[in-house]
Structure formats: structure tokens, C-alpha cells
Design brief:
The complex is a heterodimer of chains A (about 625) and B (about 260).
Chain A (H helix, E strand, L loop, with lengths): L14 H8 L5 H4 L3 E5 L3 H13 L2 E5 L17 E2 L11 H11 L6 H21 L24 E2 L5 H18 L3 E4 L2 E9 L2 E9 L5 E5 L2 E4 L20 H8 L4 E2 L4 E7 L22 E5 L16 E2 L1 H5 L9 H13 L11 E4 L1 H7 L1 H19 L8 E10 L2 E2 L12 E3 L17 H23 L10 H19 L6 H15 L6 H21 L11 H25 L23 H4 L1 E6 L8 E6 L14
Parallel strand pairs in A: 1-2, 1-9, 2-5, 9-17
Antiparallel strand pairs in A: 3-4, 6-7, 7-8, 10-16, 10-18, 11-15, 12-13, 12-14, 14-15, 18-19
Chain B lengths: L2 E7 L8 E7 L8 H15 L21 E2 L2 E2 L21 E5 L8 E3 L2 E2 L2 H10 L19 H11 L6 H5 L6 H13 L7 H14 L10 H5 L7 H16 L9
Helix pairs in contact in B: 2-6, 3-5, 5-6, 5-8, 6-8
The chains are: A alpha+beta (about 625), B alpha+beta (about 260).
């Protein structure tokens, strides 16, 4: 298979403009004759569904939660980047582009990243117009703050609830289209397969989570905005329901899966406290603006933090990276936390935590200012841990947060199945091997509001689709696959709960395909996963029936997919014999412990083709060319 | 510690429900309330009994999906806290807790502690938005919003749509939820053109959804996990009154 990324040649500054001009249009009066399915209602899916509705398409939109407003984008705290340069501090579209390519450790596609930086400007305007209450200065102008991996202030925010406010903007735009009859919304409905007719995506098979009814929906194109797969690890900052089922089943129907091993570990999460733990809670990266990260200099120092004098503290990020200090990118901050903990200098009961201390900031700025900036985060920390961060430093540890990998898409955001698009976190395209803070919201909204609604017209206008109805053999086949899987899970007379298997898989993945990886560890995981998967299918116990609300059944289907995806992640991590971004292979590091990339051999996107469960997938490579930002070792020193 | 739970069990919307008693002998004080329910469900599955259905997703207090009545209080005893953020250290050994789903005509029970809150979405669809189609926006700084106004708007916009206000209200009124949206958008300059139309359409929709009227009891404010203040209801009432007089022809709600 030849991977054609379809980005235009010529000067990067005008690529998107020229490309848009070359795309075919659909006459406004004809748009209503076409139906587009959008799965997922986060920033990407929600904004896409709303915008496609505004354009006049018939949209059918699906989410598994009870309302489109629940999608996990809502939990993003810190902010959204845009190269507005409102602060006159040297920012520009080019600098945002540069920072994002460098931050992604030179494993993303330049053309996509440049477009993202350009569109960042429109996103802020759009969101303001919708009534997103961004933070303002007393003059009434928009306020900004700085964020990890950047030396300019380009992050727009709404207290610590930026994701919530942006999502509500998209949700309200979507509800407006629902009220106008332009979008039909299907909440509590889970997509379980893609229907491919004559090589093109023509619909999806869904299960109504309340009645259990399996149904097919047909359309002219299908858009997935279903988020990332961080829940492979069981414990992550993702919502409990976040899952990979939509993209994995699309993968099994022929969509290539790119860079599955590129996962992001967020450095500032509340540490694990017990084996009943169900999820990990993120403390926004913006806290590193004012908080200082440290551990005791001495190993096993169990004194309370207030009794450790200044000269016995190691502010290790400020020491190792004087120019970026506590604001180094996420992968660097996470790896350093792991290093000091592995060195026996971690704090707290488990020794798997470091301090994030606001003492100096409170002295300098006053409690009031700190409360205004981070009040809700401090409250959340106190609710969970029972400790007051105004008095005692926070304890934090890295946790799985985001997945840069996802379905391979071209410049139009189309997967390798014609008519199937992937937007937002579920595609691989913009963040390379590491995503910078405040860039996920930017990408989700860029894809949904501005990119996809332009590129999808070209597909709709160029293809002549045969009429299809639900009696088509491809529809029948997809439906029966879904029904068989449900029946197989329910009929299994096993002894163990779905969660117990999920925890077991998650631990294995965290240990061997987590913050740092080795060939030996990955080989071990690759030998364990198939056996574990076998045990799952042999011994999983799912109670209840298929024709009712059955939360165990929902989870079982998702975990079954995680068992397959996890194997691909390990394989991809094993094949990539270099360290880059969030993918740190212990064998490949510089003498001072930084990630050592191998641009000669690995400057490509690894796109995997499914060849059946348990069979080795096929590897396709999209070479990456860097015409503008020349690869160099990422230095934040 | 030992916790006794009495949980509302109801197979589906049509069957009758009943309270069932469960005993949990080993609850850690560090667990969240929902983690305690996870532990209960693991036990039930091991025994071959149907686990308790409850809604939840982010478990960070922001998605608004979780929530049930705990001893008659929506989201339990800790003010300003969703159920997922409530930790067991706020209870004591031997406590008996009665868990029931949100009770309101507009929120029919789906199963056990799960209810259908789609009526909230229909309230927003009726008018809870600013009509700014993608692509039509001026520069973000072209619309100045004084900091105090932006902060006030943000206070109201923090609503997570969990439904605790409706569940706690003796009238099952959605006024706090609607008021929050009317205030969030109506405070901002961008929200002015549709201000009257919005409030009329939302009030009309609330009536159609069988939400009750507000009689200023204030239970909603007391249980709101995001501390939305009663003043948003006053603001909505004021806007509604003005809208009813000012432009009787505008708005498609019957008002």
C-alpha cells in the first residue's frame, strides 16, 4: 500500500490556502442530499457535527454518554494555544509551528503542524464569538499564560476549566443544530463497527446502550472523533468510559494505525494511593508556572517537607534545565521524576512521588493571587488527598494522559479507508512523539471547526456512491459480527470480572510499555499479552443480558479491543529502536540521559496494517521530510 | 471501616424498584465514593449477582455524569462536591447510607441509579447558545469584556449539568440550571442580541419537559457541586419579565 499524504508542495505558508482552493465544493442546495455520520462529541466530533450541520449537511451524531456535553475534552484544565502575539513577546504562527514540531521531537508532518498553527488564530475568535468566558484583563482584553515547552505566553484559558468551556461552546453550537433539525443526536449509543461497501466507508453499526438494540446507520461519509486509547493502561487520567473500540474496529476493517507506541505521560498527577484505585487525577501543567518541583537530596529522607532546609532540597528541573526550568515539556518532566524516584529519593508513603511546592509563589504573589489562578485545582487536590496545598507541597507523579498515535490520516484527515475520517486525538497527525501542553484542545477544534468541514466537501463532490440500504450483505455481515461478539461474551461461563483483566493488562503495559521501555521488556510483554488475552476469552464473566443496560458488557467489548491494541503498541515500541518524545527506549540515550533519536533510520511514521488477531501486522512507512525546522537534539537546557 | 448501603435497585424504566441492603466490611478512608461502589460491584459479580448500575465518567467532578441521593442529599453530605470527588474519609465506621437515583418527572429512571437527563439537552437546544456559525467571528480582542463581567459569566458557566439541583428541589425545577446558562450568555456582550429570545424559549421548553416552577427554596444552591448561586435565577426571572414586555413578537417560545 502506497501512503499518499496528499499535502501540497510549495511554500508552507500558503499550502493550506492553495489546497483549499483546489478542493471541490458542494453546492449549498445539494448538501442536504448527503448524510454524514459523526461519532464522538468531544471538541473534535462536537465542533465537526455542529459545523457540518451549519453547512447544510444531514448529520447523524453519536456518543456513548447520556449527553454530548460529557465527552472527555471537558476535563482539560489548562488552556488552548494560539499564536495571537497579543503580548508582543515574539510569538508568531511560525514560532508556534516551530515549537510544536520541535516539541513533537521531529516525528510529525510539517504541513499539518503549520496549518494547525495558522488555524489557532481563528479558533480563539470563534470561541469568543460563541461566548466562551476566557480569562480577561481589567481592560477587557484577553489574558494569556505560559505553558510547558514554550517561552512565550500564548495560552488562553478559562480558570482551570478551559476544556469544559470550549466543549460547552461546541456543545451549544451542536444543540443549536439539533434544535434546528439539522443534526440527529444519538446519545447512549456505542459504535461497534464500520460498514465498508465497495471499499468505501458507508456507515456504522451501533448498539443502543439502554435497549441493547443493534442497528445500522448508512451515510455518504463517516467521521470518527472518538478520542485516545490511554485507558489501555487501566489507570490513566482519561475518563472511565474512554476507549479505543471505534478506531480499533475501523483498523480491523482496513484503516492503518499509526505510531501506536507514542503515548504521553503527564508529569503532574495525584499519585496512586491503593489497589482499589479506579483512575488517576491530573493536576494541570499550568501549576508548573508557579510551583517548584523538588525532592530531598538525601535518599530515604522521611522528614516532613517543611523540615527539610533549602540546602537539602534538589530542585532537579531547575538544576538540569536552567533556561526552561520547571516548564520543560511533559516527556522531559515525567522522565526526570521517574529518575529521582528510581534513585530512592521519591516522597510519600510509596516513594513514587515528588513535591510540587507553592511556598515561594505564595510568598512572592500572595495567597489571593495563587487562589485566583489555581483555586479550583487546589480544592480538587485537597478533596482527593485530604491535604491543603497552601500549607503542604503537593505530591505528584506522572501518569498516562494522552496518546499521540492513532489512525493514519492524510492532509485531508481521511484514513486509508476512503470516506472514513479521523479527527482530534484519535488520529496521529499533529503531535509527533510528544504533545505540548494546551495543544490538544487546539487540534481538536482546528480539525472539527476548520479542517474537516473543508476537506470533506471534496470527497462528497468527487465520488459517485451507489445507493445502499440496510439489506446490503456488507451491512448484514457487520451486524452479525457485532451480535456474535456480544453473544460470545454473555455466554462465556468464566469466573473473573472484566475489571480484573483490565487491571492486569494495564499493569503489564505500565511496567513494560510505559515511561521507559527496553527491548527485553517489550518482548516479555509481547509473549504475555496473547496468553492473557486467551485467559480473558476463557475466563471472563459478564452477567446480565444483551437487551438491557449492561455496563459490564460494554466494558468487556472495550477491554477485548485493548487486548489486541496493546500488542500492537508493544510491537511498534520494539520496532522503533530509538528514543523520541514520549517513547523512551533505555538502550538509546545520550551520555547525560536525554532521549537519543535516530533520524537516519526512524524519521518516518509507522503505519500498521491489520492481518488478523495474533498475526503479525504489516508495516508501512510514511517518510518524514523536514524542509523548515531542521532536526536537532531537543535541548531545554 | 464498615459501611452499610441501602441501594435502589430497579431493572428498567417499567419495572418496580426496591431498596436492597448491602454490607461492606472493609472500606478504606482513601477510597472515593464511586470506588466503594466499584468494590461492591466486584463482590456482586463474584457472587453472580447483577452489579449496581450507576453513571460516571471523568471521576474528576467535571463531566457531570455521576450523582445520586445519599441519605436524601444530592451528591452526599460534602458541600460543593460531586459524588465522584466525595471520599470515604468523610464517613465513619458503621454508617448506614441510603442511595437513590435523582427523583424528578423530567428524569425518568433508566436502571438502578441511572436516570435519563436528555431534558437538559433539549433546554439548551431550545435557546442555550449564541448563534455564531463557524467562520463568522471577528478578532477575539475586538469584543472587550470587562474582567468582572467575564468572571461573573464564568461563575455561571461552571455548571456541569449534573441535575442535582432538579433532584433536590421539591418542585423538581430546573431553574438553577437554566438560570446558569441565561446568566453565562446574557452577561456577555456577545450574548445580547439573542438575550430575550433565549430566555423565553428556554422557559417554554422547561414547561414542556414537566420541570416545576421555582419557589425560592434554595435547596438547589445548597447541593450544587459547582456553587452556582441563586442570583442566576433572579437574573433569569428579570430577563424573562423584560422579554415578555419588551418584544412580544420575538422568540418562538410561548413564554
Amino acid at each position: 500500500m502506497e501512503l499518499d499524504s496528499k499535502f501540497p508542495a510549495g511554500p508552507i505558508e500558503t499550502r493550506w490556502d492553495r489546497h483549499r482552493f483546489s478542493l471541490k465544493l458542494v453546492n449549498p442546495a445539494n448538501k442536504r442530499k448527503h448524510t454524514i455520520i459523526v461519532v464522538g462529541t468531544g471538541l473534535a466530533g462536537g465542533s465537526a457535527a455542529a459545523t457540518l450541520g451549519e453547512l447544510g449537511y444531514n448529520v447523524k451524531c453519536f456518543c456513548f454518554q447520556d449527553s454530548p456535553r460529557r465527552a472527555h475534552s471537558i476535563a482539560a484544565q489548562g488552556g488552548i494555544n494560539a499564536a495571537k502575539n497579543y503580548h508582543n513577546d515574539g510569538d508568531s504562527v511560525y514560532r508556534l509551528f516551530y515549537d510544536t514540531v520541535k516539541g513533537g521531537d521531529f516525528r510529525s508532518r510539517e504541513s499539518n503542524v503549520y496549518r494547525l498553527a495558522q488555524i489557532s488564530l481563528n479558533i480563539i475568535d470563534q470561541c469568543v464569538a460563541q461566548g466562551v468566558p476566557f480569562a480577561r484583563e481589567y481592560s477587557g482584553y484577553l489574558d494569556n499564560r505560559s505553558f510547558g515547552g514554550a517561552q512565550v505566553s500564548r495560552t488562553f484559558y478559562a480558570r482551570g476549566q478551559t476544556g469544559q468551556q470550549l466543549l460547552l461552546g461546541a456543545y451549544q453550537a451542536l444543540e443549536r443544530q439539533i434544535g434546528a433539525g439539522q443534526v440527529a443526536m444519538f446519545p447512549r449509543t456505542e459504535m461497534l463497527d464500520v460498514i465498508v461497501i465497495d471499499g468505501r466507508a458507508r456507515g456504522i453499526v451501533t448498539r443502543n446502550l439502554i435497549t441493547g438494540r443493534v442497528e445500522s446507520h448508512l451515510a455518504d461519509a463517516v467521521v470518527l472523533g472518538t478520542g485516545g486509547y490511554g485507558n489501555v493502561y487501566y489507570l490513566s487520567t482519561n475518563a472511565k468510559g474512554s476507549n479505543a473500540t471505534a478506531i480499533w474496529r475501523a483498523h480491523k476493517r482496513g484503516a492503518l494505525f499509526a505510531n501506536p507506541c507514542f503515548t504521553q505521560i503527564h508529569p503532574t498527577c495525584i499519585p496512586v494511593s491503593g489497589d482499589y484505585q479506579s483512575k488517576l487525577t491530573l493536576m494541570s501543567e499550568s501549576l508548573r508556572n508557579d510551583g517548584r518541583v523538588w525532592v530531598p537530596l538525601k535518599k530515604g529522607d522521611s522528614r516532613p517537607p517543611s523540615q527539610i532546609p533549602e540546602n537539602e532540597r534538589d530542585y532537579y528541573l531547575e538544576r538540569r534545565y536552567p533556561s526552561f526550568g520547571n516548564l520543560v515539556p511533559r516527556d522531559v518532566a515525567s522522565r526526570n521524576a521517574k529518575l529521582v524516584c528510581d534513585d530512592g529519593r521519591g516522597v510519600g508513603e510509596t516513594g513514587l512521588a515528588v513535591y510540587l511546592d507553592f511556598r515561594d509563589a505564595i510568598e512572592r504573589l500572595g495567597r489571593h493571587t495563587i487562589k485566583e489562578r489555581y483555586g479550583n485545582l487546589f480544592d480538587m487536590y485537597e478533596r482527593i488527598t485530604g491535604e491543603d496545598p497552601y500549607q503542604v507541597p503537593m505530591r505528584i507523579y506522572p501518569a498516562i494522559h494522552y496518546t499521540m498515535g492513532g489512525l493514519w490520516v492524510d492532509y485531508n484527515l481521511m484514513t486509508t479507508i476512503p470516506g472514513l475520517y479521523a479527527i482530534g486525538e484519535c488520529n496521529f497527525s499533529d503531535h509527533g512523539a510528544n504533545r505540548l501542553g494546551a495543544s490538544a484542545l487546539m487540534q481538536g477544534l482546528a480539525d472539527g471547526y476548520f479542517v474537516l468541514p473543508n476537506t470533506i466537501n471534496d470527497y462528497i463532490a468527487s465520488v459517485k456512491l451507489e445507493k445502499a440500504d440496510t439489506s446490503h450483505p456488507a451491512v448484514r455481515e457487520a451486524e452479525s459480527q457485532v451480535t456474535c461478539l456480544t453473544k460470545r461474551l454473555l455466554d462465556n461461563k468464566g469466573t473473573r470480572s472484566v475489571d480484573s483483566f483490565h487491571r492486569e493488562l494495564g499493569k503489564l503495559m505500565w511496567d513494560y510499555c510505559g515511561m521507559s521501555r527496553t527491548a527485553e521488556g517489550l518482548q516479555h510483554a509481547l509473549s504475555e499479552i496473547p496468553a492473557m488475552r486467551e485467559r480473558f476469552w476463557h475466563d471472563v464473566k459478564v452477567l446480565g443480558g444483551g437487551e438491557e443496560l449492561n455496563q459490564s458488557l460494554e466494558k468487556a467489548g472495550r477491554v477485548a479491543d485493548f487486548f489486541e491494541l496493546s500488542e500492537l503498541m508493544c510491537l511498534d515500541a520494539l520496532e522503533r529502536n530509538e528514543s523520541c518524545g514520549g517513547h523512551f527506549r533505555e538502550e538509546y540515550q545520550t551520555p547525560d540521559g536525554e532521549a537519543a533519536r535516530d533520524d537516519d533510520r526512524y524519521s518516518y511514521v509507522a503505519a500498521w496494517e491489520f492481518h488478523g488477531v495474533g498475526n503479525r501486522p504489516g508495516l508501512h512507512k510514511e517518510p518524514l521530510a523536514f524542509e523548515y525546522v531542521h532536526p536537532a537534539q531537543r535541548s531545554y537546557k | 471501616m464498615r459501611i452499610v448501603l441501602h441501594i435502589w435497585r430497579q431493572r428498567n424504566a417499567n419495572e418496580r424498584g426496591r431498596m436492597v441492603r448491602y454490607e461492606l466490611p472493609n472500606v478504606s478512608e482513601h477510597m472515593s465514593f464511586l470506588e466503594m461502589l466499584d468494590v461492591l460491584n466486584e463482590d456482586l459479580i463474584a457472587k453472580g449477582e447483577d452489579p449496581v448500575a450507576f453513571d460516571h465518567d471523568c471521576r474528576e467532578g467535571i463531566c457531570g455524569m455521576c450523582g445520586c441521593m445519599v441519605n436524601g442529599i444530592a451528591h452526599g453530605p460534602l458541600p460543593g462536591t460531586t459524588l465522584c470527588q466525595l471520599h470515604m474519609r468523610h464517613f465513619k465506621d458503621g454508617d448506614e447510607l441510603y442511595l437513590e437515583p435523582w427523583r424528578a418527572k423530567a428524569f425518568p429512571v433508566v436502571k438502578d441509579l441511572v436516570v435519563d437527563r436528555c431534558a437538559f439537552d433539549r433546554l439548551i437546544a431550545a435557546g442555550g447558545f449564541i448563534s455564531a456559525s463557524t467562520g463568522s467571528a471577528p478578532d477575539g480582542n475586538a469584543i472587550l469584556v470587562p474582567k468582572e463581567i467575564a468572571d461573573h459569566s464564568m461563575d455561571a458557566a461552571a455548571c456541569i449539568g449534573c441535575g442535582a439541583c432538579v433532584a433536590m428541589c421539591p418542585n423538581a425545577s430546573a431553574s438553577l440550571f437554566m438560570g446558569a446558562k441565561v446568566a453565562h450568555l446574557g452577561l456577555l456582550p456577545q450574548g445580547q442580541p439573542e438575550r430575550h429570545r433565549r430566555v423565553k424559549a428556554m422557559v417554554a421548553q422547561a414547561k414542556a419537559e414537566m420541570f416545576g416552577s421555582c419557589t425560592n427554596i434554595g435547596e438547589c444552591e445548597a447541593v450544587c457541586p459547582k456553587d452556582i448561586r441563586l442570583e442566576v435565577i433572579a437574573r433569569m426571572n428579570g430577563d424573562f419579565l423584560k422579554a415578555s414586555f419588551a418584544d412580544r413578537s420575538a422568540g418562538d417560545g410561548e413564554g
